[in-house]
Design a protein that fits this description.
The complex is a heterodimer of chains A (275) and B (170). Chain A is of the alpha+beta class and 275 residues long. Chain A folds into two domains: 119 residues, Thrombin, subunit H (Beta Barrel), CATH 2.40.10; 81 residues, Rod shape-determining protein MreC, domain 2 (Thrombin, subunit H), CATH 2.40.10.350. Chain A has six helices and twelve strands. In chain A, a hairpin with a 5-residue loop joins β1 and β2. Chain B has one domain. Chain B is built from seven helices and no strands. The chains are: A alpha+beta (275), B mainly alpha (170). Chains A and B meet through α2, α3 and β2 of A and α1, α3, α4 and α6 of B.
């Protein structure tokens, strides 16, 4: 026993090294499962305030561009409103989308595009009703999914994260696929699982399918830029140019899906728990 | 806590702040990162106990991880650097040994020694960091490109700061 202790003492540095590395590896692997960690990510108050400060000082240099984006967004809403008032003769039925989804607007205070696993921090949290699992969209298209929330801030998994998958549909052919980033170019994602018999074309629109009730159906993802089909492959290799330029993301909207829990529990009772 | 301990504490906070407020945003060509905080571990005094060194590295790594939303990633790479640092220092001892009271700095040991000391350790850090983040060797060449460009960027900034402090001490 004495000799065993001596042995451990002799190599204490090495064992401490192993212990620390094992702990880090555990954190790294479990990181995706910690949905509700409030402290150890950028949604904690100190980190978020520091990042917010650095973001706000950088913002001065892009005010012009932010203004342009906001006015474009405004114009878009005005057109929508105009259309609605023109249709107001028709009594508005209890529209699906109106009941199903509610939106919270938030400002991006931290964002990256060059890592393999990119996250976005925004300045709205629990007190605005945000919960993990909700979708984030911008005026241009889909942005990501809420990973964890603190009282006033939330962290989103960006679409530019090699672990993130979004169920999509090719609008022209109505075929379903999965959009996933390959980690290389922040302007493009890959559209997977489009079978051989379909004929996707350059310029086709890709939107969210609404299958998992996170994203509303029909949220723009991007436009097909490149279509390849290898001799033996079962599926196409499709590059999709993202509608939202993630390098200049300033505002997002969090989609509160009112019916998500209902859909999930219904699916759970009929098909069982999803992997 | 003695005087130098307080200085180390201040530097610790300073390195984290500079890393997350400045260098987090500064990514060249979408692939070259600067992880300046590695220099904090590289430049700690020669006789630092390896256990303390690793513990400090772990704390520094976790602090950076909080801002990068990558819990455990920077910490694991930095602990690796901290572990190998003292062995590497022992291996490349210059003739006549190190001057007592001097840190492993460029000013004390010269440019050539400093490059031999820092480049492999920074490379080890970047290598483990990027490949751990990519989750394997799936996109090997692109990841390797990131490692090499980031190595150049980080080394450039470390050397720049070393010359900067070198001049000031004269």
């Amino acid at each position: 026993m004495q000799r065993l202790f001596n042995f451990f003492y002799e190599y204490r540095t090495f064992f401490a090294f192993l212990l620390l590395e094992a702990f880090c590896a555990w954190l790294l692997i479990e990181n995706n499962k910690f949905q509700n960690t409030k402290f150890f990510n950028s949604s904690n108050r100190l980190a978020a305030n520091i990042l917010g400060f650095s973001q706000s000082s950088r913002e001065y240099f892009s005010l012009r561009q932010i203004n342009e984006e906001l006015s474009r967004e405004n114009a878009q809403y005005k057109t929508l409103l105009e259309r609605r008032t023109q249709n107001s003769g028709i009594p508005f039925a209890k529209s699906d989308t109106l009941v199903r989804y509610d939106f919270v607007s938030a400002k991006v205070i931290n964002n990256s595009v060059a890592q393999f696993k990119n996250y976005i921090t925004i300045n709205q949290g629990e007190d605005a009703g945000i919960k993990p699992g909700m979708a984030a969209i911008s005026i241009a298209g889909a942005v990501g999914k809420v990973k964890s929330v603190s009282e006033h801030f939330s962290v989103l998994i960006s679409l530019l994260n090699i672990d993130e998958q979004v169920s999509c549909v090719l609008t022209r052919t109505s075929n379903f696929g999965t959009a996933q980033w390959d980690g290389v170019d922040p302007r493009f994602v890959n559209l997977l699982y489009i079978p051989r018999h379909v004929q996707p074309l350059e310029g086709d629109t890709v939107v969210t399918s609404g299958y998992n009730a996170v994203f509303p159906a029909g949220i723009m993802v991007g436009i097909v830029k490149e279509v390849k089909l290898k001799e033996e492959a079962l599926f196409y290799e499709i590059r999709v140019e993202l509608a939202q330029d993630f390098r200049r993301l300033t505002f997002v909207k969090i989609v509160k899906s009112e019916l998500k829990s209902e859909l999930d529990s219904l699916e759970k009772t009929t098909i069982g728990i999803r992997p | 806590m003695n005087r130098s301990g307080i200085f180390v504490g201040i530097y610790f906070v300073l390195y984290v702040l500079v890393q997350v407020m400045l260098f987090k945003q500064l990514v060249l060509f979408n692939m070259a990162f600067c992880f300046l905080y590695v220099a904090f571990i590289l430049l700690l005094p020669l006789e630092t106990n390896p256990l303390i060194l690793m513990l400090v590295a772990f704390l520094l790594g976790i602090s950076v991880d909080v801002f990068y939303d990558s819990l455990g990633l920077h910490a694991s790479s930095l602990v690796l650097v901290a572990y190998f640092r003292n062995y590497w220092l022992g291996t490349i001892t210059p003739q006549g040994g190190y001057d007592t009271g001097e840190g492993p700095t460029l000013a004390a040991n010269g440019l050539q020694w400093f490059m031999v000391y820092s480049v492999p350790l920074v490379f080890a850090h970047h290598f483990t960091l990027f490949f751990a983040e990519a989750g394997g060797f799936g996109i090997f060449w692109f990841t390797m490109q990131k490692v090499m460009t980031s190595l150049i960027f980080t080394m450039f900034v470390i050397l720049f700061l070393q010359y900067f402090s070198f001049d000031r001490s004269r």
